[in-house]
Amino acid sequence: MAASLIGTSARTALRSGASATQRAAGVAGLTFARGKATLPDLPYDFGALEPSISGKIMELHYKNHHQTYVNSYNQASEQLQEARAKGDIAAQIALQPLINFHGGGHLNHSLFWENLAPKSSGGGEPPSGALSKAINETYGGLENLQGKINTALAGIQGSGWAWLVRDKQTGDISIKTYANQDPVVGQFEPLLGIDAWEHAYYLQYQNRKAEYFKAIWEVINWKTVEKRFSA
């Protein structure tokens, strides 16, 4: 399966494959070593996003959940290589859901960490430039966009993500929801993703997930979103 990420789209590279050399990609911290996915470094301490997101949640989310996606993706990739070597088509087909789920989990979370920043580093500061213009033209302002994304998040049944995406063909932005760990691939480029899985908030907010959806905007790193939009 994919060995590393190259080019401007981390997601496309993961699905199509590349060399085993570690390279910078669309997700700055997303790295591969010797053909294996690796956990990216966080650009801030676990407690740096408090009180919006507790340090304990960040630690568990990053060290336990994201690491599990990395480990499971690597394991499934090795099994897929073995199945290909044997010409076992049935086994290859059976492994694809695991590749999608755990590989998607790795990609989604690598993007998610970059979506966030402490307030001292610009977290929560509104977008500017071309992205701000696109938001105003499409949604009538940042507050309206946030409200629509929060509504989309609240409507997710079970686990999933809400994304602000850019259409690669038209350049238009829109809001999409994806179930489980399905990654944003194909026609759309992910700009901003918010994790609606319970492991992202339950330890702190319990069943008050609407409070989590509101609080996370205080630490959104719009500068990273701007860079993705302009890429």
UniProtKB/TrEMBL annotation:
GO terms for cellular component: mitochondrial matrix. Its cofactor is Mn(2+). It catalyses: 2 superoxide + 2 H(+) = H2O2 + O2. Keywords: Antioxidant, Manganese, Metal-binding, Oxidoreductase. The keyword Manganese applies. Mn(2+) binds at residues 61, 109, 195, 199. Residues 127-228 form the Manganese/iron superoxide dismutase C-terminal domain. It is an enzyme of class 1 (oxidoreductase). It comes from the Eukaryota. PROSITE patterns: SOD_MN. InterPro entries: Fe/Mn_Superoxide_Dismutase, Mn/Fe_SOD, Mn/Fe_SOD_BS, Mn/Fe_SOD_C, Mn/Fe_SOD_N, Mn/Fe_SOD_N_sf, SOD_C_sf. Its EC number is 1.15.1.1. GO terms for molecular function: manganese ion binding; superoxide dismutase activity. Residues 38-117 form the Manganese/iron superoxide dismutase N-terminal domain. It holds the Pfam family Sod_Fe_C. Belongs to the iron/manganese superoxide dismutase family. PANTHER family: SUPEROXIDE DISMUTASE 2, SUPEROXIDE DISMUTASE [MN], MITOCHONDRIAL. Destroys radicals which are normally produced within the cells and which are toxic to biological systems. This is Superoxide dismutase. The lineage of its organism: Eukaryota, Fungi, Dikarya, Ascomycota, Pezizomycotina.
